[in-house]
Amino acid sequence: MARPVSNPLFARIYPRINAVAEAHGSLDHRRELLAGTRGRVVEIGAGTGANFRHYPPEVDQVIAVEPEPRLRAMAERAAADGVAPVEVRGGRAEHLPVEDASADVAVMSLVLCTIADVPSALAEAARVLKPSGELRFYEHVRSPHRRLLRTQRMLAPFWRLFGGGCHLTRDTERAITDAGFTVQDVRRFDFLINGRAHPSAPSIIGTARPPTA
Ligand SMILES: C[S@@+](CC[C@H](N)C(=O)[O-])C[C@H]1O[C@@H](n2cnc3c(N)ncnc32)[C@H](O)[C@@H]1O
């Protein structure tokens, strides 16, 4: 059986990290990620629930899955801020507590960097999506530039330790296509803070269709 996800240090610092990121532009990224979503949404690794208030009124229900108990408690509090009804569930991406083919949208934001078993998590996202559904993703990724990639590789062990297991050098778009999804659109950009790149600056936001059976 997989070990429970427990990251007290990360749970304490992530709300502050997120507040800084949101003040410098990630709020817009969250809005971009969720624009046009509708119906029944499964949000995977919802953290503190930072996305909840950005779901449009066309969303009927959000099932938010979060394994870390302290973050899950924050998500439960944030659930009240959303326009759509949000139900927070314990569980891991690799084994979602959600029925087959029941979701119009699966949302993964800043989470494929951290999940231990990415192929299983994406297979689970595909399982819970209706054939007509879509995956929405917003992730920081491996830099295409040699110099920044070298820095990412150098910082990786420290980053994983203080970032709740976060990997800096994942090629997440590749992982999504390797899992059988068809990427519909993707925007690659550097998320600059005060005009400067940082180790988790290279980012993608996009949508993908689930594999056909
Ligand atoms: C950087 S936080 C992002 C939280 C949130 N998605 C956001 O956009 O702010 C990474 C999240 O992934 C969660 N996580 C870690 N391992 C996971 C797993 N195996 N399945 C689902 N979520 C996981 C963590 O508990 C944490 O909430």
Task: Describe the model.
The chain has helices at 8-34, 69-78, 118-128, 146-162, 172-178; strands spanning 39-44, 59-65, 86-89, 103-109, 129-140, 182-190, 202-209. The protein is an alpha/beta fold and 213 residues long. The protein has one domain (8-209): Rossmann fold, CATH 3.40.50. Strands 3-2-1-4-5-7-6 form a seven-stranded mixed beta sheet, with helices on both faces. The protein is globular. S-adenosylmethionine binds next to helix 1.
Fraction of residues in H or I helices: 25-40%
Determine the CATH superfamily: Vaccinia Virus protein VP39
By DSSP (H or I, 4+ residues per run), the number of helices equals 5
Q: What average pLDDT do the residues reach?
A: 96
Low-confidence stretches: none
Instruction: Report the strand count.
Output: 7
Strand order of the largest sheet: 3-2-1-4-5-7-6
Bound small molecules, by name, code or SMILES, are: S-adenosylmethionine
Looking at the structure, the CATH topology is Rossmann fold
Major sheet summary line: 7 strands, mixed
The structure class reads: alpha/beta
Write the element-wise H/E pattern from the N-terminal end onward: HEEHEEHEHHEE
CATH class membership: Alpha Beta
Shape: globular
Strand content: 15-25%
CATH architecture: 3-Layer(aba) Sandwich
Number of domains: 1
- Rg calc: 16 Å
| Terminal-residue CA separation | 28 Å
